[in-house]
Amino acid sequence: MHEHPTTQRTIFSPGPLSPGPSSACLVVIHGEGLGKRQDVREEVVKIGRAPDCTLLIAHPSISRRHCEVWREDGRYWVRDLGATNRTRVNDRPVERMELKDGDHLTIGETLLKFISHESLEARYHEEVYQLATQDGLTELANRRHFAAQIDVEIVRSLRHARDMALCMIDIDHFKPINDQFGHIAGDLVLKQMAAVIRGNLRREDLAARIGGEEFAIVLPETAAENACVFANTLREAIAAEIFVLGGEPRHLTVSIGIAGLGPHANDRSSLMRNADKALYHAKDAGRNRVCLCASEDCVCREAASG
After folding, report:
1. pLDDT digits over 245-297, tens only?
2. Quick check: is 213 catalytic?
3. Are 218 and 224 in contact (CB under 8 A)?
4. How far apart are CA 31 and CA 249, in angstroms?
């Protein structure tokens, strides 16, 4: 290999050109197009299901040209374009509104999060992590994260001979809500239900949305009987909550099935199977109740209200 007889002298360049203003972005965190990122730069971002939209989201709940987002004098704005299902920011319908970091945009049945230009990349990667572990609609843990965490908790509880219980929660008569009032109204119910659940947890508890209208709660250091007391308190709190559907205040109920960690339920699949059996028993027994699977044969009983 031929070598140069002398070392070449480095000539310093003035460096890269200064970048223009940083952009903000929109990230789809729930619904059609999950995980999509759309930067908001100088050009207006049109959102809808028409092929010429900048952010194309092909879902029937979204109008062909639903809304637009743009930057003006360093500030970011959203404007509804006469969509059938009005554009909402943080659950409030809007015509035109300035966007702030962390705002949630509801576009039909799709939920987007606005991330401002400050620390964009760090925030975006944080958002990607949230997508991997969190349900975008309710902000509870998603099914994947729930599965990983309950496995860890089962191993810990068995190793140290500690109690642990699992609650499976299903909203009673949820399908008629979607059928009568639409999926957007159903999504608002799910978000409000999740807020009630979150408000009744201890720091060490884990709540997750594991299906359409189904939730799960892992209760470490909790015997099955104490889990029944907790579940009835939660059931009563939900029954007392006011949900607005079709402009009218309404009360909704849940059914809850409980299983405790033990000889006949010592892994995730058996624990979830027992809790599911208890949940179905609660449904068959009339709904709006808590049932416990307390034996190998899963003889469920209605738990006494605590």
Report:
1. 999 999 999 999 999 998 888 999 999 999 999 999 999 989 999 999 876 55
2. yes
3. no
4. 27
